[in-house]
């Protein structure tokens, strides 16, 4: 308890950076992920190839390596801090998973709806935006929520590049106080404050969706 | 000069060293996936059975573990458990941390798989005189596992990727060994990072193709 | 199972599991308290016939991994080997030396947790650390410096006292705390290890990397565009570290250290590792 009191501002700062990184990466990966999901189902072959390659590459390599790549290599040419490198890596990595989720959502929307919308004079983009995507998102919502939880957990990668997040600050406190046990328990509680309510909300959504189907 | 760096990073001894790291990565992943299949199944069945109080209790613990970063669990097992007298060598510390985390993930998959098995099958088996336990082992679980093969392979992919996090406790796996190689000469960084990325990609992409194939074959 | 039976089973299982968790926690607390008690390192290494040394694997000259053998090479490793031989002679118990690569961030934890018996890992003796662990007499004379790009215009740590500068340090080193005293306005970027630190410096994440001069000389040898600016601004000799209150082990190790300094082994090792480092007056490092 004394440990928490003495280091409260440190933990709180870490919590703030974890939250900030998660939100930025979430927004970015939603936009990118949706974009690549649409590319994968476009009729144009080249778009499908780009979408597929992107998703396969980022799904199959460790987040840590993407992070190191931005922190140590890309930053030679484009200046970016550890926080930025980690957040960008997190965004790209997560967007591949979101693309998969959104694509599955789009495919589960009845194909006739697209044809119907096109027959009624809507363009492909309009049909996508107004008819297909809203339904796809509703179906994909629980999976998207799980991706967001993963994203919050994965933001601990920032600790490797001096990203000032919760895990980084926890390591600092542990290194200074040598009370590893209590420090990591406190860090765990801070993470759970973010992830646990979300997780229960998603379970609730899943039940609702199941009943609706 | 740059091209020279690209080739000189891959001396036979450095390549062997990196491949040894790959061996450790795969070893940790495979042992962890087996252990987590066992524990994840137990926890998944408990949750599926909806035993009063017990299933909720176990489910809550499972949810807590599932919602923590794996990196934190790794640090906890290696740096905090010795405080209560549990000393693990680095390899097994990683295996235990990853199995704990993955068991929680797999428990959810097992529960989902069980729930997807048709209810009539239970009743039919019971009508044929099988006990609850027998029904579970001979009828329900095999069907559930069949459906679960693709998600289990994706968990294996996650494990292969996540083993890189054990870099934080200096496990001598592939990413750490990559760092050691570019500590020899800092011009090696780009070729080494690209090479290990490629190895991870090929391994995991292969696994994901296997999952797809299994999905088709079993569907 | 009928409903009533299921309910009964559920309740009993919950109680058993909850009891197991509570008992487990109590046992854990008891063990934690017991572990906080004294464990004699010398008695342990004599019983097991081996000394497990924590060493660096990413630090040129002191401990750098040899990818062929999987064992690090460097001054620290050679010192640990020589000490193990000497301690075996003194105690009459044959002991082997084992090496575990540690990161700067992890070595103190590993010592406290007895994952390693001792640590020869470029560790500066400080009063704060002495409260928590034990040090031998110094085995290497070092001081903190900064490594900067030759054309950076930075001539000393004092030049960096501005919020536009970032100094790269490694988590858990003395440099992390000392830099803040000499350049309080500069930002700090703490990374996990020296290899990442050097890469971060080269990619412009910071304008200087700060740590002990001998480690920086290792990097300067390999990267001719970089040099050490302004000499040392602290004095912080390295010691060999053990867990707290290990008087017998410290005594043996100090005696062994004195012996290898007298019989010339120490100076041979200094010559072996430091005589080829440009800009370093290696003769000044020798034992007198």
TrEMBL record, chain B:
Localization annotation: Cell membrane
A Pfam family recorded for this sequence: BPD_transp_1
GO molecular function: transmembrane transporter activity
Entry keyword set: Cell membrane, Membrane, Transmembrane, Transmembrane helix, Transport
Gene Ontology terms: biological process: amino acid transport
Gene3D superfamilies in alphabetical order: MetI-like (1.10.3720.10)
Superkingdom of source: Bacteria
Stretches assigned to the ABC transmembrane type-1 domain: 22-211
InterPro entries referenced in this protein's UniProt entry, alphabetically: AA_ABC_transptr_permease_3TM (IPR010065), ArtM/GltK/GlnP/TcyL/YhdX-like (IPR043429), MetI-like (IPR000515), MetI-like_sf (IPR035906)
Annotated TM spans: 15-43, 64-81, 188-211
Membrane topology classification: Multi-pass membrane protein
GO cellular component term, pick one: ATP-binding cassette (ABC) transporter complex
Family: Belongs to the binding-protein-dependent transport system permease family.
NCBIfam families documented for this protein: HEQRo_perm_3TM (TIGR01726)
Protein name: Amino acid ABC transporter permease
Lineage: Bacteria, Bacillati, Bacillota, Bacilli, Lactobacillales
């Amino acid at each position: 308890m004394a440990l928490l009191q003495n280091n409260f501002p440190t933990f709180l700062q870490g919590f703030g950076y974890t939250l900030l990184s998660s939100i930025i990466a979430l927004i970015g990966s939603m936009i990118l992920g949706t974009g690549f999901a649409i590319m994968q189902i476009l009729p144009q072959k080249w778009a499908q190839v780009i979408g597929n390659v992107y998703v396969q590459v980022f799904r199959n390599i460790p987040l840590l390596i993407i992070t190191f790549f931005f922190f140590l290599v890309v930053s030679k040419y484009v200046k970016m801090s550890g926080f930025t490198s980690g957040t960008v890596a997190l965004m790209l990595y997560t967007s591949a998973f979101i693309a998969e989720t959104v694509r599955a959502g789009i495919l589960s929307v009845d194909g006739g709806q697209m044809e119907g919308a096109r027959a009624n004079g809507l363009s492909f983009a309009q049909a996508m935006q107004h008819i297909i995507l809203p339904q796809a998102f509703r179906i994909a919502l629980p999976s998207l929520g799980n991706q967001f939880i993963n994203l919050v957990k994965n933001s601990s990668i920032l600790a490797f590049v001096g990203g000032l997040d919760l895990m980084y600050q926890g390591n600092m406190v542990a290194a200074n106080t040598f009370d590893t046990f209590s420090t990591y328990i406190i860090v765990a509680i801070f993470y759970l404050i973010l992830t646990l309510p979300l997780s229960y909300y998603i379970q609730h959504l899943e039940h609702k969706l199941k009943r609706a189907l | 000069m740059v091209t020279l760096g690209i080739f000189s990073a891959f001396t036979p001894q450095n390549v062997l060293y990196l491949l040894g790291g790959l061996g450790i990565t795969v070893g940790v992943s495979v042992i962890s996936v087996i252990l987590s299949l066992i524990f994840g199944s137990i926890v998944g069945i408990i949750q599926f059975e909806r035993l009063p109080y017990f299933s909720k209790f176990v489910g809550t613990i499972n949810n807590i573990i599932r919602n923590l970063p794996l990196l934190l669990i790794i640090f906890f097992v290696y740096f905090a458990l010795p405080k209560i007298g549990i000393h693990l060598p680095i390899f097994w510390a990683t295996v235990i941390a990853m199995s704990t985390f993955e068991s929680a993930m797999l428990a959810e998959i097992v529960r989902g798989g069980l729930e997807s098995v048709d209810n009539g099958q239970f009743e039919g088996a019971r009508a044929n005189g099988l006990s609850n336990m027998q029904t579970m082992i001979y009828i329900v679980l095999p069907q559930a596992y069949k459906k679960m093969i693709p998600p289990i392979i994706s968990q294996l992919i996650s494990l292969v990727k996540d083993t890189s996090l054990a870099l934080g406790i200096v496990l001598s796996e592939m990413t750490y060994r990559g760092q050691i190689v570019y500590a020899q000469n800092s011009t090696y960084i780009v070729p080494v990072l690209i090479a290990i990325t490629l190895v991870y990609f090929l391994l995991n992409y292969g696994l994901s193709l296997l999952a797809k194939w299994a999905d088709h074959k079993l569907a | 199972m009928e409903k009533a039976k299921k309910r009964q089973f559920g309740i009993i299982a919950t109680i058993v599991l909850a009891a197991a968790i509570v008992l487990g926690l109590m046992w854990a607390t008891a063990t934690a308290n017991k572990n906080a008690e004294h464990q004699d390192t010398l008695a342990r290494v004599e019983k097991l016939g081996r000394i497990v040394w924590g060493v660096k694997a990413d630090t040129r000259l002191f401990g750098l991994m040899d990818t062929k053998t999987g064992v690090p090479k460097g001054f620290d490793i050679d010192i640990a080997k020589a000490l193990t031989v000497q301690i075996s002679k003194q105690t009459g118990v044959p002991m082997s030396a084992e090496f575990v690569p540690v990161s700067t961030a992890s070595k103190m934890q590993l010592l406290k947790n007895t994952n390693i018996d001792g640590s020869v890992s470029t560790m500066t003796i400080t009063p704060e650390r002495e409260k928590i662990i034990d040090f031998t007499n110094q085995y290497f004379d070092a001081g903190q410096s900064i490594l900067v790009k030759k054309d950076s215009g930075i001539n000393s740590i004092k030049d960096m006292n501005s919020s536009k500068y970032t100094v790269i340090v490694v988590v858990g080193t003395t440099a992390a705390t000392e830099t803040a005293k000499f350049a309080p306005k500069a930002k700090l970027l703490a990374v996990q290890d020296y290899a990442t630190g050097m890469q971060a410096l080269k990619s412009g994440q910071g304008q200087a990397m700060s740590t002990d001069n001998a480690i920086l000389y290792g990097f300067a040898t390999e990267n001719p565009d970089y040099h050490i600016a302004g000499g040392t601004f602290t004095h912080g000799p390295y010691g060999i570290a053990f867990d707290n209150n290990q008087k017998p082990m410290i005594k043996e190790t100090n005696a062994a250290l004195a012996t290898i300094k007298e019989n010339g082994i120490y100076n041979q090792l200094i010559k072996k590792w430091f005589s080829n480092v440009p800009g370093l007056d290696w003769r000044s490092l020798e034992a007198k």
